[in-house]
Design brief:
Mean pLDDT: 95
Strand order of the largest sheet: 1-2-4-5-6-3
Distance between the termini: 39 Å
Strand content: 35-45%
CATH superfamily: Hotdog Thioesterase
Number of strands: 6
Helix content: 10-25%
Order of helices and strands: HEEHEEEE
CATH architecture: Roll
């Protein structure tokens, strides 16, 4: 089986996020309707490091969850026309932060589809790892909405 990949241009066709809030740099593999593996490279150039924290840069935990959410959004919208649908967070459960992420780390974002509750509500489980160690994980629920209805 060959790996399915997406570069940043393809990612930006799938989700509406833009600088400084796009948290997925590359998709390295996926299986439609099942799982996705993506990458977020963390550099000292990230704007949030100016205030979080001066002299001790740590990626905010909420942004690690956002990275998992964006990867999950790509996963749940793979079968949709990108211009037609958006995935919005509905709920987050069982969030755990095990270690901080710092400049130079590469977050590997593993997101698996857990359950399709309705055609418009999807639950996933995501894990962010650095060097093979889980540093953040949680269950995320999305509402799939018509982008023209917003």
């Amino acid at each position: 089986m060959s790996e399915k990949r997406m570069n940043i241009k393809e990612i930006m066709e799938r989700i509406p996020h833009r600088y400084p809030f796009i948290m997925v740099d590359r998709v390295i593999d996926y299986e439609e309707g099942k799982w996705i593996k993506a990458v977020k490279n963390i550099t000292i150039n990230e704007p949030f490091f100016q205030g979080h924290f001066p002299g001790e840069p740590i990626m905010p935990g909420v942004l690690m969850i956002e990275a998992l959410g964006q990867a999950g959004g790509i996963l749940v919208l793979l079968n949709e026309k990108p211009e037609d649908k958006l995935a919005f967070f509905m709920k987050m459960d069982n969030l755990k932060f095990r270690k901080p992420a710092v400049p130079g780390d590469q977050l590997i974002l593993d997101v698996k589809l857990v359950k399709i509750i309705r055609s418009s509500i999807v639950k996933v489980h995501g894990e962010a790892t650095v060097d093979g160690n889980v540093i953040c994980e949680g269950d995320l629920m999305f509402s799939i909405v018509d982008s023209k209805a917003i």
